[in-house]
Each structure stands twice: as C-alpha cells, then as structure tokens.
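Translate sequence into structure tokens.
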Amino acid sequence: MQRKNDPLIFIVEDNPVYNKLVVNYLQSKKFNRIESLFSGEECLKRISEKPDIIIQDYLLEGIDGIGVLKHVKKQLPHTEFIFLSGQDSVDVAVNTLKLGAFDYIVKDQMALKKLTDKITKILAMQTLVKSNKRYKTGIMLFFLALAAIVLILVSLTLIYPNKFNFFGR
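Result follows.
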C-alpha cells in the first residue's frame, strides 16, 4: 500500500468486454497501474505483485470471488476488495462484506461511477491511516526524548550533586 496516488489495481473479470470496459474507464480517471485478469487462479498467481485494490467479479469459473478474497486476505490483509458483480442479492453482498470486502457493487449503469468513488474513498482512508501512524510515532518519540532528558538530569544530579543542584539540597 505504498502508492497513494497510483495504486496497483487488479481487475478480475471473466467477461472480456466488461473487463476492458472497466480498465478503460479507470484509465480515463487517471488510474494507470491496472492489471486485467480473467480468473481467480490468474489473480492468485500474480498476488506477489501486492495489489493495493482488487476489483473482483463474484461468479467465476474455478476459484470464485470469495475464494480469492479469503486467500488474498490471509497473505495481504491490507489489500482492499471491491466486488463488482451481476449478483443482485443482499445475502451475497453481506457475506462478502463480512469476509473483509470493502464494498459490493451491482453491475448497472452507475457501477463504474460508484467504483471510482469507492476507490477514491479507499485511497483517502489509506492516507488518513498513514497520517495517523506518523502522528502516533511523533508523539511517542517526543515522550521518549522527554524521558531521556529527565533521566539525564536525574543522573547528573546524583553523580554531581554540588554542580547540578536542581532539587534544592
């Protein structure tokens, strides 16, 4: 997840026409690092490339979307999944979310717009998480430095009580 402005996105869609449509739409929205894949097996073979986001069809021959999600989340828990599927079932959508998907989008006339909105939200969330980690690290370093200064002052007072008389003895 190191590329905030140019994430690596896998499109896993077995329909070549819809796959190309999604790829072209995302490229038109300035997402440049997109890999077009046609099966769950192909996705799993390339998982070592560490995609930031996987846009996954639910129903695929062989390993289905849920199988890919479970396998990838074990190896790359920070990789986000967006299911883009023709399955218009609340149960299916809820199940994908319970298993760790970021969202589930039904293929319709607004699906690609929704998809870019979700990708933008993922990137904003990742930026916020990174910023929060840097903030926490800064606070921790500040208190460690403060503790070190206090220890040095106490040590100097104990070693050289006549020169460093901070406590009024």
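Note: The chain has one domain: 9-129.
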